[in-house]
Specification:
mainly alpha, 2 helices
């Protein structure tokens, strides 16, 4: 069993050595260019994500301000309705 492991390991090492020797300088340069392009794309995506996050935060702030205004308007409406109701009741009692 030990001989089998040694033979398997030697075969794997040989395969790795053989495969790594097959890469040419041109292939390595092409791969480097692809990696550089991917890094550039990642940077652009990060920038877009930051801009989207900022826009979302602005939208949330605007929505919160709108809710505050709506709640304020609702409170005024209830207050006005209460006043009108009191005036109507007074008018009916006279």
């Amino acid at each position: 069993m030990n001989k089998k492991r040694v033979v398997t390991m030697l075969a794997l090492v040989g395969a790795c050595a053989g495969l790594s020797a097959c890469a040419t300088t041109g292939e390595i340069e092409a791969l480097k260019l692809r990696v550089d392009a991917l890094e550039s794309n990642v940077s652009a995506v990060k920038s877009d994500a930051a801009a989207a996050r900022a826009a979302a935060n602005d939208a949330v702030n605007t929505a919160n301000q709108a809710m505050d205004k709506a709640n304020e308007a609702n409170a005024r409406s209830i207050d006005t309705e209460t006043k009108i109701d009191r005036m109507f009741k007074r008018a009916m009692h006279k």
